[in-house]
Amino acid sequence: MTGTFVEVPSPSAAGTEAAPAARRSAWSRVRRIAPPYLYLAPAVALLVLWTYQPLAQTAYLSVHSWNLVPTSPMREVGFANYVRLLTTPELGESVLRTFVVIAGMLPFTVLIPTVVGLLTRHVRGRAAAVYRGLVFAPMLVAPVAGAAVWQWLLDPTAGVVNRLLGTELNWINTTGTAQLVIIVITGWHLVGFAALVVSAGLTGINPDYAAAAQVDGASRGQITRWVTLPLLSPTLAFLVLMTVLLSAQWTFPLIDTLTQGGPVGSTTNVYYLLWEYGFRSHDAGLAAAAGIVFFLGFIVLAALLASLADRLSHHDD
Amino acid sequence: MTTERSANDEPVGARSPAQRALGHSALGLLGLFCVFPIYWLYATSLRAPGDVYQLSVLPWPLSTGNYADALGKIDLAGMLLNTAIVAVLSALGQLLIALLAAYAFAAWSFPFQRLLHLMFVGTWLVPFQATMLPNYVLLARLGLLETLAGVIIPTLCSALGVLLLREHLKNFPKELLDAARMDGRSSWSSLWTVVVPSLRPVLAALGILLVITAWNEYFWPAMVLQRSNAVVQLGLRSFLGTEGNEWGPLMATAGLTCLPVFALYLVLQRHIVNAFVRSGLK
Question: With contact defined as beta carbons under 8 Å apart, do A67 and B137 qualify?
Fold first, then answer.
């Protein structure tokens, strides 16, 4: 009576049980079918409560006007929030800035890790462990602590960077450099992780392919270009997807602590804009509309990237 | 270590010393870029309060003045304790809930399995900021704003944890589960006596990863704890905002904020790297 653990037979088989024991068999059927759902229940309940129900709520809020005060009424306004959102000049600029951030992150999450990974395939033993520890360390630094130390490094008068360069630039509060600073600090946080992912990907490639190509007379450069990189492409596609989906999110703590979106809005990306709508202007409808637009945008982007990755990837089957 | 390597070690083409040097210098440069800010953080924090602006690479004379200063200015000890409570409870909760869910996926086949799995994968596409407003309102209704429980509860379902554990359990030999059933064990006792012991390294790695993530979390605590600075990340931020930064105490605070994570990492280095890389490859 422990239920069919491991494999549940098809429901039709269970349904053809003899009629006299109908009530008992219904009960045993429940006992047989219920366990996986019971084990899943806490996780699914939390997921619905804190992710999917709020998402639906956001969709609902996006067609209403509300200022977040519990006692004030919610007015239905149709698509006015979306119209308002899509006609604000800030939106286009912040989307553009989000793409700049993503493009700026790719060298740190894809290019540098790949080059380093290829150059260091044969570094082994203790040296490799030491390097791994070094490049991984920033990942462990809390974003706010990272913001603090970089603010100190970039301080206009006393910071190491300016004193080494002999400049007195106010990196964080200058329109031209603020975005660069955010990108470099985020890149610093992630480059070690990406390098590890790439080297894990390289380790997973069967060396027989390269050996076969070498027997056929391919040079090392040709092997890298035509054998190693294609086999590495699923890993690289994963890194690109992650960068696209998470870059703007990773920059948020840095923007919030270092620039607050400034100077003159030069570091306001879509996430920061959303945050400002909701928690600075208390414009729940507008923030919700923005949230829904970004969610839909993400789905489209992710689907595009996934299909692109599928077409470009060469799987090691 | 040595320049001589066996043929097995170098499957494709022999590497000249120059190429090996190129590899080391690439890694060395990257390592320097990664680690210098961290080194400078601790170097500054250990300078005597009057020497903070010095550029010497080694801080000398060493001083704990900045730490004393920081500890006197904000309730750092209380914040560290609060953060530790949040990190540990959040990680334990996520681990338990993810384990149960992953077990369900691995041990049974059942209707709607794919759909339920997609629900977990789908969270990747929901930007946190798209759900923050309703979550904030819900927390307010539950009376959990400005409480540590409000920080912990919404984090308890980790989709990443579920997917990672499911991936590991997929390779778990079903024969062992069958054998346990033959012995007359319930699925609940099989989970704890058969599955969990074999998953122990993965659970440890994931647990550490979750502790670190929760410890470093900024966005959610900042929303829930707007009036107080009960966790270290927020305390650090309140330090950052002040005009004319006092770099010494600030670096000491930042250093203390990171110290527990670094300590965890140093002790359990291999596990953590594996956890990060594997979760990354998901």
Answer: no
